[in-house]
Design brief:
Strand content of chain B: under 5%
Distance between the termini of chain B: 169 Å
Radius of gyration of chain B: 78 Å
Largest sheet of chain B: 2 strands, antiparallel
Protein name (chain B): Spermatosis associated 17
Order of helices and strands of chain B: HHHHHEEHHHHHHHHHHHH
Strand order of the largest sheet of chain B: 1-2
Structural class of chain B: mainly alpha
Keywords (chain B): Calmodulin-binding, Cytoplasm, Repeat
Number of strands of chain A: 0
Subcellular location (chain B): Cytoplasm
InterPro entries (chain B): ASPM, IQ_motif_EF-hand-BS, P-loop_NTPase
Shape of chain A: elongated
GO molecular function (chain B): calmodulin binding
Number of strands of chain B: 2
Oligomer: heterodimer
């Protein structure tokens, strides 16, 4: 017997059991269906194909709380796999009964219904809109206020799933007054609830400036920083995500976070954890630094740059490295002062190696190159630039030489150092196309030095000298 | 014939030949400073037709009417000079020293600055110059003008020339009388004859009629030729001088005009240049002010270095504080967690101890935790000592709780009452005593103010009521007859009986036999008539307070 036939057989056997006179059998049958559907999407599809859902939905409104729980579990298990399956549930008219279940007295039923609604809403904005249209949001907000932690958790998760799709949906959640209640629960000792609450807040705040300001106005700010010190990794990650989503909108919001000491907390958080948990924190630093030079300076004085460079060298995954490279680029692109702060800790060779490595992903290469370009165009700290002279490919070398050509004409000490460190020799060895920008820069550098020195460091000078020795006729 | 006639005759004849393009000729003369000699005399002569000439003739007319004799004399002297010396220029000089200025005819002073007498403009110039000279100026002009055109005063019309009709008549008559250039013309002969008559000394050797005729015949041709020459030369001079004069005047006019224009233009340019200079200056100053202000503003509010430094310092300080606080927070969390773990472990151990209470050592037999070979008993032993053994009932309950699936309301087969523990007593004690309903209490507490009738009425209500009564009485009065108690006017009035007593059904017994209504069934309400009494406070509160004291039983 093939798996399909088995499924057919099982479904045909389970369906009559849903109509059994004994409630225990009904519930157990529903539970069995739910577990089957939970296993994978083929089974879930079989449940949908078996025309079981309408019956479940019908009995969801009629039966006792245990049956309701089980039926909601089936719906959740079916709906979690794909948008099509979730749409099938919506087409059965399950949403209205689920919403009625949210008004049930039993917290278990509420939890199951909220869970099912959350799983339906998480797929896409249409489904989410359908859930909202069924009037679930106010009831979910009421569920947050219930004393049961589990129910709170599930309701917060459902709200997060609803609000993540579009600003309008997030606005509906906000209009239902969810933010104030969610913000109150940030200090809840339960870590899992905190995860969901922070996730919901970040999903609300991510859409627009207005929503982010609404979230900020709930006075989450010094409080949410404590979550960055939480023992739970996901709480940390979600807290960092929330801060990132708020910071990314406007300089004012970023400033608010900086003034609240958020940067220091995030930097500490980056230092304390590993892997993907770091990512939102790194991105947050990049966003804050991108807004204005003062904010970038605030990141620098909060010792953000060493932490980012550690991330850049420590992390294994390319996307985190790419984020760190991007953040560094955002910090260093404002003024020479900023670029110097980055160049001093020797990040540039690391960035260059990331760019040059064949193993690194395309995104990482692009990010590293952009960061290098941004930093190099502002950098006037020559000791950090000199190593790049030897390693950099021409498209990066262009910026390095450009910086030398800008600084050397005005700095005699640097000119001297440039010669003694072998920079001038290296410059003479560069083969630039005549008329190109690189050649112009080289000419500018050469013009800073006496001609014989330039000639001395030119590649074929020793041969020329020897030739002169040969040609010389001694006067006897 | 008059010599004046002749001159005017010629002049007008010439004029008549002209096509009269006055303005054109004026322009021509104004435009060219020197007129070439070869130009036809027609054009030159046309100059005489210009308005100044007419005015000049008119003047002559006027003057000659005033002093005919002097003009005559002057003219005669002129003719005489011309006739005497053909080479003489015939220029007339105005002597500025003689006052009143007189005319001098000089033949040998052609190089001197002279004004041709015959030029009408000269007459004007002379006139212009002579006029401020004094009261005699007029007479001087007269002499000058008269010297030129002399005998128009001899014309029979007197002022006929200025009249256009007279002039036309003159013109019509002139060609018949005197064709130009004919030697036998009377117009030509007349002056010569007069000259001969005026200066007989020249022909004194020709005495008698015969010699005179011969003489005339002999010199006629040469004289005529000379006269023509003189006249042509003279007229040429006159015209040239006039043109020169016009040019000079033109130059003067143009000079003044151009000077005026130039000055105007210069003033304008100066104004513009000054304006531009001023604007440049203002702009420069504005730039200076704006530069300062912008620098100040930017440095104060936008790129304030010190502020930025302060801000960054504050941020780093804040960061330190936040870090420290978070550190503390994490520490406390950690401690709490540890404490909780410890407590849980203790609890577990306690439970364990309770469960294994039977391992407690007795006085006789040491337990497993109390080895006699060890210096001190195991800590578990102490715990066992402290612990209370688990009761069996507790386990029973737990067993019951595990069978949870059987308590479905629809499941009738094995339904039992749930064996859950009764709810713990609520900590708050129930308050004592039978109390009134909360709603009633609240109603009592929040009822609105109900003042007593006495408090509600105003203090002057009596006066008000009296006023009202008075008004009511006045309003409802049926007639305005005054009550006159002791007058005789009412004597003859008939007594009106009361309605009640005058009923045709007989008198009602009310008031006579009885004072109370006897037929109770006729009452509208079966309630006793209540008298209005002054309010008693106690009764006002009736039924509105907690106590039942006020209630009427």
């Amino acid at each position: 017997m093939s798996q399909r036939q088995v499924l057919q057989g099982v479904m045909s056997l389970l369906r009559p059991l849903l109509l059994d006179v004994v409630p225990t059998i009904q519930q157990t049958a529903a539970l069995a269906l739910g577990r089957l559907a939970n296993y994978n999407d083929d089974l879930a599809e079989a449940v949908v194909k078996g025309d079981i859902l309408p019956q479940l939905v019908y009995s969801l409104a009629e039966q006792n709380r245990f049956y309701k729980k089980a039926a909601a579990f089936v719906l959740r298990a079916v709906g979690k796999h794909s948008p099509q399956l979730a749409q099938a549930i919506v087409d059965c008219g399950a949403l209205d009964t689920l919403v009625i279940c949210l008004e049930d007295f039993d917290p278990g039923v509420k939890e199951a219904a909220a869970w099912a609604l959350g799983y339906i809403a998480r797929h896409n904005s249409e489904l989410s809109q359908a859930v909202v249209d069924a009037g679930a949001v106010p009831l979910l907000v009421l569920c947050i206020l219930e004393p049961e932690i589990a129910l709170k958790r599930i309701a917060a998760s459902a709200l997060s799933d609803i609000s993540k799709h579009s600003p309008e949906l997030a606005q509906t959640v906000v209009d239902a007054g969810a933010i104030a209640h969610l913000a109150q629960m940030i200090l809840n000792p339960d870590a899992k609830l905190k995860r969901q609450v922070l996730s919901a807040l970040s999903q609300i705040a991510k859409h627009s400036v207005d929503l982010a300001e609404m979230v900020v106005e709930a006075e989450i700010f010094p409080v949410v920083l404590t979550c960055l010190k939480d023992s739970d990794e996901y709480v940390k990650k979600n807290a960092a995500t929330l801060i990132r989503e708020i910071a990314k909108h406007t300089p004012e919001l970023s400033q608010l976070i900086v003034n609240a000491g958020g940067i220091a907390a995030v930097i500490d958080c980056i230092g304390n954890c590993k892997g993907n948990v770091r990512l939102p924190g790194i991105m947050m630093l990049g966003y804050v630094a991108a807004h204005s030079e003062n904010l970038a300076m605030a990141v620098i004085i909060s010792k953000g740059v060493p932490q980012l460079s550690i991330c850049l060298s420590e992390e294994q995954e390319d996307h985190i490295k790419a984020a760190a490279a991007w953040a560094l680029g955002q910090i260093g692109r404002h003024t020479p002062e900023h670029a110097r702060a980055i160049a001093v800790i020797n990040v540039l060779p690391v960035l260059l190696s990331l760019y040059m490595e064949t193993e690194s992903s395309e995104d990482l290469q692009v990010k590293a190159k952009k960061a290098l370009k941004n930093i190099l165009q502002k950098c006037t700290y020559l000791p950090a630039l000199e190593p790049l002279l030897h390693d950099a490919p021409p498209n990066i070398l262009k910026y390095v030489i450009g910086q030398f050509s800008k600084v050397l004409p005005h700095d005699s000490k640097a000119r001297r150092l440039f010669v003694t460190s072998g920079g001038l020799k290296k410059v003479q060895e560069i083969k630039a196309e005549p008329g190109s920008l690189l050649q112009e820069y080289i000419n500018t550098i050469n013009n800073c030095y006496p001609e014989e020195i330039v000639r001395y460091y030119s590649p074929g000078y020793s041969e020329a000298l020897l030739e002169r020795v040969e040609n010389y006729q001694p006067v006897l | 014939m008059n010599p004046t006639h002749d001159i005017t005759d010629i002049t007008f004849q010439n004029t008549s030949q002209l096509p009269q393009p006055h303005t054109e000729t004026h322009k021509e003369t104004a435009g060219s400073t020197v007129l070439p000699q070869s130009r036809p005399p027609k054009i030159l002569l046309s100059l005489f037709c210009s308005p100044p000439l007419h005015i000049f003739f008119f003047l002559i007319q006027r003057i000659s009417s005033k002093a005919p004799k002097s003009i005559d004399l002057a003219y005669c002297s002129l003719i005489h000079t011309v006739g005497k010396a053909p080479q003489a220029t015939g220029q007339v000089r105005l002597d500025p020293l003689s006052f009143p200025p007189s005319l001098h005819l000089e033949s040998d002073e052609r190089n001197k600055l002279a004004v041709p007498l015959c030029s009408p403009a000269a007459g004007w110039a002379g006139l212009g110059r002579a006029r401020p000279g004094g009261p005699t100026g007029d007479t001087d002009v007269v002499s000058e003008a008269g010297a030129l055109a002399g005998g128009s005063c001899h014309s029979p019309g007197g002022s006929g020339l200025q009249h256009p009709r007279a002039r036309a008549r003159f013109e019509r008559a002139a060609p018949d009388n005197c064709p130009r250039g004919r030697p036998g013309c009377k117009a030509w002969d007349a002056p010569r004859r007069r000259a001969a008559g005026a200066a007989p000394g020249r022909y004194h050797w020709l005495a008698g009629q015969e010699t005179e005729r011969r003489f005339v015949g002999q010199y006629r041709k040469t004289e005529h030729a000379a006269a023509v020459k003189i006249q042509s030369w003279f007229r040429g001079c006159r015209v040239r001088a006039y043109i020169r004069y016009l040019n000079k005047m033109m130059i003067v006019i143009q000079k003044w005009w151009r000077g005026y224009q130039g000055r105007k233009h210069f003033r304008k340019m100066l104004k513009t240049a000054y304006f531009i200079m001023k604007m440049n200056f203002y702009n420069e100053m504005a730039v200076r002010i704006q530069k300062r202000w912008r620098g100040y503003y930017i440095r104060k509010y936008i790129h304030n270095y010190y502020k930025l430094k302060k801000y960054l310092e504050a941020v780093s300080l804040n960061n330190e504080i936040v870090r420290k606080e978070l550190e503390q927070f994490a520490e406390t969390k950690e401690k709490e967690k540890e404490k909780k773990d410890l407590e849980r472990k203790e609890k577990k151990k306690d439970h364990q101890a309770r469960k294994m209470h039977y391992l407690l050592s007795t006085e006789q037999i040491p337990g497993v935790f109390n080895s006699p070979f060890r210096p001190s008993p195991d800590p578990m032993e102490l715990r066992l000592q402290k612990a209370k053994p688990l009761s069996h009932r507790h386990q029973q309950i737990k067993e019951n709780l595990t069978k949870e699936t059987s308590d479905f309301p629809t499941c009738t087969s094995s339904w039992t009452f749930p064996m859950v523990q009764p709810l713990p007593p609520i900590a708050r004690q129930k308050p004592q005593g039978p109390f009134r309903d909360t709603a009633e209490v609240l109603l009592q507490r929040y009822k609105p103010l109900e003042p007593t009738l006495r408090a509600a009425t105003s203090i002057n209500s009596l006066e008000k009521a009296r006023e009202e009564m008075k008004r009511e009485e006045w309003r409802n009065r049926i007639h305005d007859n005054e009550f006159l108690p002791f007058s005789s006017c009412q004597k003859n009035q008939k007594y009106d009986p009361l309605i009640q007593s005058s009923s045709k059904y007989g008198q009602i017994t009310y008031g006579t036999k009885h004072f109370r209504e006897e037929h109770h069934e006729k009452w509208v309400a079966n309630k006793d008539f209540e008298t209005v009494l002054p309010p008693i406070e106690l009764f006002d509160r009736c039924g509105k307070t907690y106590s039942r004291a006020g209630q009427i039983v």
